[in-house]
Amino acid sequence: MSINWRCVFAVLDPRRNFRLRLGIAIGSVALILSILLSLLVGYTASKQLEASTGKFFTDLSYQMSDKLDRGMFERYRDIQIAATLETLYKSDSSQDAKHALLEKLQNTYNDYAWIGLASPDGKVLVSTGGILEGLDVSTRPWFINGKMQNAYVGDVHQALMLAQILPNHTGEPLRFVDVTAQVKEQNNFIGVLGAHLSWQWAKKVQDSVLRTVAQRDKVEMLVLSKNGDILLAPPSFKQQGSQLKSFQLAQTGKNSYTVETWSDGKQYLTGFSPSIGYLDYPGLNWVVLVRQRTDIAFAGAITLQRQVLIYGVVLGIVSALLSWLVANRIVKPILAISSAAEKIRAGHNQVNIPVIRGRDEIATLSVSLNRLVNTLENQQFSLQNLNEELEKDIIARQQAETEARILNQELEKRVQQRTIQLEAANQELEAFSYSVSHDLSAPLRRIESFSQILLKKCSNQLDATSNVYLNRISYSVKQMQQLIQDLLFLSQASRSEIHLQKINLSEMAYAISQDLFVTEPKRQVLFCIPEGVTAFADKRLIYSVLENLIGNAWKYTRNIEYARIEFGIVENKDGSASKSPIYFVRDNGAGFNMKYHDKLFSPFQRLHSEAEFEGTGIGLATVQRIINRHEGKIWAESTVGFGATFYFTV
């Protein structure tokens, strides 16, 4: 019997099998929740272990540093007390008595490697075991510092003079801690009593502290000097301690713990405690570190996390199987309904949707589908009739669209023709305006010349009325010439080519302001022009824009005692310039009524009488045409009596 693998794959395809999809979904949710729970449990447990173990390591490091400080305090006190005994400083004390005293002191504490009394010149007078007696120790640090201080404690160092004399069963170089005190008789300096304390003493203290953690795996303790040098550490440890985060934190005086990476590339949980001395013993600023690898310190949390994950995976698999069984019970009646619906789709009109008994959603669905099929069969006939009517409507609509398309094409042709005619008319109008303005200039110049000649040569022969008439003729000619000049520039602004370049508007505005002061040098006007305002525009045309706008501001502030004219760029709220610069010219002059704003840029439109302010009414129209040719915008804001602000972009 052959296996139909296609059917098998179809059954196992989640896209075609609701039961399998539901089982996978619930199992996946359970698995994801298990993973999240395991991560949360692992994180929480790790933090709790870090806190508890870190505090424990901090306590260990503090115990070690405290024991070291107390031990050093006792030796510090022993030597100071011994230095005050009469046997040492009395001149009549025998050498044997001094020997006996030092030997007794050494026997009270076995970690005294050597104790000796040196004279002021550095010669050893008496010592334990007679070692170094008669030798010069004046260059040794313990003697030099002991001679300068009443009591002195030297940091750990290797033995030099005693290295070959004293027995050493450890196989490691002998290292000592120096403790000295001055010997005096009635404030007279007799010598220096010095003791070398074997550093093996610190190893014994370490063993006594770590004895309480015998059950903990691979807990290591280190003692570092104030410079980070290793004083006590596992034999394999070679790292410079000053680079450690824990060492740096301990130097601030803290007793705490941290997680850090050491020189072997592994992470350690490290507790630390600084040595701060005890009572009058000042301390040597040692730092005690207690460390353990994080994979060992947090092993319990990792194990718990794995257990939670395993239980979650098992729960997810069980949930998926149960979901598959429940889904199978739910899907069975749905499959029966689906089979009947498929037969109806294939054209079997005598098939009915099976009605499922019960009151649940599937039973309700089967009843609704059964009614739906009956309703659809009744509506099918109605739809056929409706489709026939729709076909007729579509044909009629297509005919109407065809007619509308033909009409639109005719309208587009007419618009194109009218546009061409309008452009031609505009060109003729501009040419006419240019020609008329140009042709009028010559007669006006002659009228002006003859008027001036009459005024100069015949003014004495004419009466006062005739002179007034001649002056009026001259003034009117100048007005007409200005109007013609403005019309010519307006025509040129519409016809001339534009050459775009980067222009310094600040320099241009400043030059215009200086020209205005030349025309009326007695006026008191404050110009506010910032440096570095630039634009990308035609230099000649944009000069005309600024000349008109600043000239208008100059004109309309004529009656203001403290006139102010400002040019610049509109800034954002944060003080920066916008990406598309908006330039402005602002004054505190006469202003205008915003009700007539729409007439502002129209040719020959004036918002003030000529008796108040002279002008032709062409300037702002020219400005707008130049701005339009730069594809920019221009607008204005004003209040009567409080000045006006013109804004433009290019």
UniProtKB/TrEMBL annotation:
Its signal peptide is none
Coiled coil (residue ranges)? 369-428
Q: Is Lipoprotein one of the keywords? A: no
Q: Which residues form the HAMP domain?
A: 328-381
An example GO biological process term is: osmosensory signaling via phosphorelay pathway
Q: Pfam families under this entry?
A: HAMP, HATPase_c, HisKA
Q: What is its EC number?
A: 2.7.13.3
- CDD domains with a match to the protein in the record: HAMP, HisKA, PDC2_HK_sensor
Q: A single Gene Ontology molecular function, please?
A: phosphorelay sensor kinase activity
Enzyme class comes to transferase
Give the reactions, separated by semicolons, that this protein catalyses: ATP + protein L-histidine = ADP + protein N-phospho-L-histidine
Q: Where in the cell is it found?
A: Membrane
Stretches assigned to the Histidine kinase domain? 435-650
What are the protein's UniProt keywords? Coiled coil, Kinase, Membrane, Phosphoprotein, Transferase, Transmembrane, Transmembrane helix, Two-component regulatory system
Taxonomic superkingdom: Bacteria
Q: Does the keyword Ribonucleoprotein apply?
A: no
Q: Where are the transmembrane segments?
A: 20-45, 308-327
UniProt GO cellular component terms: membrane
Entry function? Photoreceptor which exists in two forms that are reversibly interconvertible by light: the R form that absorbs maximally in the red region of the spectrum and the FR form that absorbs maximally in the far-red region.
Q: Can you say what this protein is called?
A: histidine kinase
